[in-house]
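Fold this sequence, please.
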Amino acid sequence: MASIRTASVFGARTLARPAVVPRAIVPTIRNATTASSVRLPRLRRPETWEEGESTLDRAGKYFLMTEMMRGMYVVMEQFFRAPYTIMYPFEKGPISPRFRGEHALRRYPTGEERCIACKLCEAVCPAMAITIEAEEREDGSRRTTRYDIDMTKCIYCGFCQESCPVDAIVESPNQEYATETREELLYNKEKLLSNGDKWEPELAACIQADAPYR
């Protein structure tokens, strides 16, 4: 600590202050014969505090209800526009080609199953909702004997569809498959193939529409 000496009518005295202090906050000490005073830096109010609505503006908004009129204008503007809602299920909106709905197993145009039992979908499924069992064919290729999906576990991430090398397992655009029991949501191979046969035109169109972006 550094000290300075000042004189006053009561005699000499010592004032202590920090040796190194920013100039902006160092108090200004005035040495007078009658008294000594300390002047602190004066804080300025931000200019935004000085700005604001005048009394006339506030009175105009209060008596003329300009805020209410502005809200009524927005309401009337929307009143004459076409509604954004649709009468579902009688009306249905467009669905993206990448929509992930009910699962399905596809076939080739010849009727042969596309699935080659590589089990990539089973391995990549984060919810472990897919169970596959396979056997070897006479020509050495593999085919599935069991393909189950627990739809109550599925999180619709689409990993199974993305990992399939032959576009066998897909998620159809169907979103209306609510059931009354849990057992109805345990899909087996026959159920998945039936979904694929039912939605094949839509599935092929969605895959073709999304092909340029893959």
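The domain at 103-213 is CATH 3.30.70.3270 (Alpha-Beta Plaits). Strands lie at 2-8, 11-17, 28-30, 37-39, 103-105, 130-136, 142-150, 169-171, 186-187.
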